Amino acid sequence: MNDTYLYPWGPKDARSRNEIALWRESYRANVACRQAIEDAIRQNFDGMHLSSDCLKPVLEEYGYKRTAWVLANTLHELKSDGRFSQSNKLWAERFYIPADPDHNSDFTVRSHPAVLDGFVDLYRKAYQDLGLFGPEHCTGDRSEQDFTGKVLVLSPDTLKESCWRQEDQLWYAHDGFGCSPHARGRSVRCTCLGDGEMTRWNRSDFVGVLKEEYLPDWALEKLNALRGQEQTDAPAMGGMTMK
Question: Does pLDDT of 238 surpass 60?
């Protein structure tokens, strides 16, 4: 699989950050991904139907993140084309693709829009089938929520695709300035409900607070154990004499 870093900014920002080499490598991978999508469509469209298997080699080579980036860029560039469904256009709008008139067209897929629209449908279904948590599974306004003692959803964008599992997304927030929505600090100390790892993430790494109805049974068991441990530790800490 092509593991080139997906650079999220344009060349102007890359130069100011002294990261133009990273941008250039990502740009080349974007162009190659575009070509792979075009090849997959050409080889798997019989004039009437697009084979559902056509997505697999693209994902195996370029992954979900870059494939989505190239498809979203394409729909941004061709947003006035009525052959793309409204739902796919709305999906693409969720992605921020830096404006770059000199380069964005280079990784705009050139397949027939009506067929390409079907390819986007296949991608969205494949992503949905992963069962990852997203904003639709979270409650309230993230910008105004206190995260302390809550189950948080880590954004898939923060994780490597090899860790795209619910077990790696759910974290229990203990404390940290980042738990408060208006604190200057952004750090949140938390424990992964999947493997028990404790670490710190930035507040912005989380999609939000998981709605209770989406909490899996396995996660509820581990959550209760963590909360029980906190209650056990609190009296012990409270009884300590500070010198």
Answer: no
Let me know: does 152 contact 206? Beta carbons within 8 Å. yes
pLDDT of residue 131 exceeding 90, the answer is yes
Between residues 227 and 43, the one the model is more confident about: 43
Q: Quote the CA–CA distance of 53 and 41 in Å, as a whole number.
A: 10
Helix 55-77 × helix 113-128 angle, to 10°: 120
What is the full DSSP assignment across the chain? --------S-HHHHHHTT-HHHHHHHHHHHHHHHHHHHHHHHHHB-SS-B-GGGHHHHHHHHHHHHHHHHHHHHHHHTTT-TTS-HHHHHHHHTS-----TTTGGGGS--S-HHHHHHHHHHHHHHHHTTT---GGGEES-GGG---TT-EEEE-GGGS-GGG-SHHHHEEEEEE-GGGSTT-S--EEEEEETTT--EEEEEGGGEEEEEPGGG--HHHHHHHHHHHHHHHHHHHHHHTPPP-
Cα 73 from Cα 232, distance rounded (Å): 51
Q: For residues 219 and 221, what is the distance between their CA atoms, to the nearest angstrom?
A: 5
Record the tokens describing residue 115, joined without a space.
């067929």
CA–CA separation, 81 and 63 (whole Å): 26
Q: What are φ and ψ of residue 201, in 5° steps?
A: -120, 160
In the chain, the amino acid numbered 151 is: V
Alpha-carbon distance of 35 to 62, in angstroms, equals 11
